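Hi R.,

As promised on Friday, here is the backbone we talked about, encoded as structure tokens. Could you run it through your design pipeline when you get a chance and send me back a sequence?
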């Protein structure tokens, strides 16, 4: 395998663009498509005759800005100040 350090600047830049493009596609699937599934489920729940008092969406922080925008598009707004709650903490040291 050719060492990346031996590539020219132009080749490195082209390779970097490919890697960035692949990463953006990956994040598009992880964030946008997964959020779309959740929003569809929320719509199903809200369409029931007996609606819940509240709905919690338990996802990672990177999903939340898109969820907020999608829910606002459905006509919802935060009921008050947003509160970030730590779901759990992990010790990074393996035992």
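Update: got your reply. Pasting your designed sequence below so it's all in one thread:
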């Amino acid at each position: 395998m050719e060492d990346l350090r031996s590539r020219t600047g132009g080749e490195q830049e082209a390779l970097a663009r490919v890697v960035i493009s692949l990463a953006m596609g990956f994040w598009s699937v992880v964030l946008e498509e997964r959020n779309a599934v959740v929003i569809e489920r929320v719509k199903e729940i809200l369409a029931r005759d007996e609606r819940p008092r509240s709905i919690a969406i338990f996802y990672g922080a990177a999903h939340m800005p898109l969820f907020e925008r999608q829910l606002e598009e459905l006509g919802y707004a935060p009921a008050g100040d947003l509160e970030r709650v730590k779901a759990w903490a992990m010790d990074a040291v393996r035992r």
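One thing I noticed while checking it: DSSP finds two helices and no strands in the chain.

Thanks again,
M.
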